């Protein structure tokens, strides 16, 4: 399918068309000082391609949220969600091909960079089956790919710059076409700007920016002066998607507009000075009325549903159901813990991050209050990583009591050894223990085992063939001998895991 977007008129009155398929393959860079019409140009491009390709807009100022009313874009307000929730929603955006505006308006610059970096990385890391074509528009790109350090943390800069580099350098094979707009080329990282093959250069005044713009357009330095004379809404265009030679284009009209707009001159009041004075210094008779209540907070579940099914029927109130029984509640908690443990990305995440994920998964199963605070969740997570999902199993009471003598981060590894020893399975390898312990270092695993052994809770033996045996003397449980550097088959599932599989 061939699609061309009408961007406006050239100097002779002929339409200037943007080849959408070529744009998806070659990317676009837009440059212009504040007030030159960059946002107007991006809006013209987005409106012209709205029904043809998926669109994802990184919007630091909230200027593009009006697209939702005219074209059905989903607005994702970053200030209303955690970073983990936004990254999970980004994965669903690629899966369901939803057009989204990520509004960063309510965040400071450091949080904007971290949020945009994580969001773009999640789009980039989507499974191969979800590599559909998508326009990824980043306004004020110099904020997310700065050429040097500024008023933000180095960690945020690295995350944001790395994500922008992946978008522009490697995003094409994943269907991501970067469209970046910047006020100043001198502030934009060169490795990000250099990957664009199409350019729309607007008005700029600084010599360094005019020189870089002229180089990208293939113009001589003496011709760069015309960039300074461009009117608002006029751009010099070059690239395989628009023109093989630089041409001047006046961007056409748009249907939607930014919420703020450009300030306009309005007449001053004509009242006499004494009248204005009486208005300013009049006694306040009553306090001002309270502000209207804020709109209801959009939850991550609502956003996920709107992305998966953009057109929803009007909601009807659900009838109040019976209170959930304790056995059903326990089954849901066990199933959610099993799902989190099975996720390979959860191995090295902190318990606090996984606790938020746990609450979200429980709510998606109609369990509003799982009854676990963060300390209790840490204990249940450690048990789940060891393969123990039933907290009420009396056969584990003594093992849990012994584990209480250890630091919290060693609980999962100790319980895993206890489970393997109880069932007489081969001794777990260092790699298996490292995964439960949340590390990639075999040395840390060996130091952990030495610490547990020093507390009298564990006895480690290595025979002449190099096979290790771990014994829990207080419980009388011993693992089968096995070489610690070799992974062994996982222990058999705990009783009742078939029921948990049906829930998952």
From TrEMBL:
Keywords: ATP-binding, Nucleotide-binding
SMART domains reported in the protein's UniProt record: AAA (SM00382)
Alphabetical list of Pfam families matching this protein: DUF87
Name this protein carries in UniProt: ATP-binding protein
PANTHER family to which the protein is assigned, alphabetical: HELICASE MJ1565-RELATED
Natural source organism: Sphingomonas cavernae
Occurrences of domain AAA+ ATPase (ranges): 24-318
GO molecular function terms attached to this record: ATP binding
UniProt keyword Secreted present: no
Source organism, top-level taxon: Bacteria
């Amino acid at each position: 399918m061939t699609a061309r977007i009408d961007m406006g008129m050239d100097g002779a009155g002929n339409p200037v068309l943007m080849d959408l398929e070529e744009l998806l393959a070659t990317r676009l860079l837009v440059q212009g000082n504040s007030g030159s019409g960059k946002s107007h140009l991006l809006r013209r491009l987005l409106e012209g391609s709205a029904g043809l390709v998926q669109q994802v807009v990184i919007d630091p100022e909230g200027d593009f949220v009006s697209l939702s009313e005219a074209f059905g874009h989903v607005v994702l307000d970053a200030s209303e969600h955690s970073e983990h929730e936004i990254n999970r929603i980004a994965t669903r955006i690629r899966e369901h091909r939803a057009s989204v505006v990520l509004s960063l308006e309510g965040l400071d610059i450091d949080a904007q960079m971290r949020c945009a970096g994580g969001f773009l990385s999640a789009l980039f890391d989507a499974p191969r089956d979800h590599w559909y074509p998508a326009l990824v528009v980043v306004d004020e790109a110099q904020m997310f790919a700065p050429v040097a350090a500024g008023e933000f943390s180095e960690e945020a800069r690295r995350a944001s710059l790395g994500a922008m580099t992946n978008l522009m350098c490697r995003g094409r094979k994943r269907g991501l076409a970067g469209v970046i707009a910047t006020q100043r080329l001198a502030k934009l990282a060169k490795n990000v700007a250099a990957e664009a093959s199409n350019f729309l250069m607007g008005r700029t005044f600084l010599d360094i920016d005019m020189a870089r713009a002229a180089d990208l357009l293939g113009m001589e330095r003496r011709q760069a002066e015309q960039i300074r004379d461009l009117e608002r809404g006029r751009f010099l265009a070059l690239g395989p998607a628009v023109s093989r030679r630089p041409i001047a284009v006046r961007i056409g009209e748009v249907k939607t507009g930014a919420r703020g707009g450009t300030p306009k001159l309005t007449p001053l009041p004509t009242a006499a000075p004494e009248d204005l004075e009486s208005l300013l210094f009049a006694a306040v008779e009553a306090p001002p009325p309270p502000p209207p209540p804020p709109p209801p907070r959009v939850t991550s579940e609502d956003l996920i549903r709107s992305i998966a099914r953009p057109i929803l029927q009007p909601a009807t109130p659900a009838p109040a159901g019976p209170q959930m029984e304790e056995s059903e509640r326990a089954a849901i908690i066990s199933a959610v813990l099993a799902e989190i443990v099975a996720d390979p990305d959860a191995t090295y995440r902190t318990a606090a991050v996984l606790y938020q994920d746990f609450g979200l998964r429980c709510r998606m199963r109609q369990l509003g209050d799982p009854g676990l605070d963060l300390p209790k969740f840490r204990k249940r997570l450690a048990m789940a990583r060891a393969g123990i999902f039933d907290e009420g199993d009396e056969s584990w009471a003594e093992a849990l009591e012994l584990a209480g003598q250890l630091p919290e981060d060693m609980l999962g590894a100790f319980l895993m050894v206890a489970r393997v020893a109880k069932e007489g399975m081969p001794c777990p390898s260092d790699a298996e223990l490292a995964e439960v312990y949340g590390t990639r270092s075999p040395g840390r695993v060996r130091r952990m085992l030495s610490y547990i052994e020093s507390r009298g809770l564990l006895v480690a033996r290595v025979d002449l063939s190099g096979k290790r045996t771990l014994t829990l003397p207080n419980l009388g449980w011993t693992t089968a001998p096995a070489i610690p550097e070799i992974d062994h088959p996982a222990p058999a599932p705990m009783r009742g895991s078939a029921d948990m599989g049906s829930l998952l």
